[in-house]
Amino acid sequence: MIARNMIEEARNVIMRLGADADNVEEEIQEIKNSLKAETGGPKEALFQSRYIKPIMLAMAIAVFNQLSGINALMYYAPRIFGMAGFAEGAAMLSSVGVGFVNLIFTMSALLIIDHFGRKKLMLVGSIGYIISLGATAWTFYRQGTDFNQTGSLVVLVSLLVFISAHAFGQGAVIWVFISEIFPNRVRAKGQALGSFTHWIMNAAISWTFPMLVGPAAAPGASQAGARVFAFYAGMMVLQLIWVIAMMPETKGIPLEKIQKKLGIR
Fold it and tell me: Which of 83, 128, 219, 226 matches a 20 to 30 Å C-alpha distance to 180?
């Protein structure tokens, strides 16, 4: 609206979005300044040095999203639960539980993401990942092929905690974060890059997981599962370090100020 000189309409929208009356004119001026700075237009290239920071942030969060092993669980849950000693019917029922927990915690995260912020949710999710994946890997390692009821229950609870951590953290944050860190003139291209990275990594995890663990009843499947889940846990330790050291908080910051915060001119 401001780009088309519809200032009064833009002012009304900003007010409806919850801005303080005292800050409306400041926000309008920031948007005007941002529009003046956008000299590249829709044909401006994404891959240039001025955008290296948002590019790396988008790719990093997308890569870490899949290195948690989330879609290995979503796609191969019955096989994983079969490896943990569940009968076929119980394994399928446990998979339904995974989907239900994912739904509940995703909805919960959507309600609070603008109150607690993206970085806090990522911190909570990363810690939940590490604990749940570590417990799953340790249980597969200790139980081997002779899973008892306690071992099966530990795997079930750990993976439900894992899916909760994902839905509450990465699953809710990734698409919001990627949409916020690129300036308007390359936002569509930046989001496309983040999505491309996410789904390429998804394909890699999806292809490699069944090859690495083998059939659920195969000898050594539990030990292979332990190694795979330990790898995912290790990647989430790296994600936690990345969140603490490099991920900026974007909650409540106008897009124009995020651009300045990332050093984009």
Answer: 128
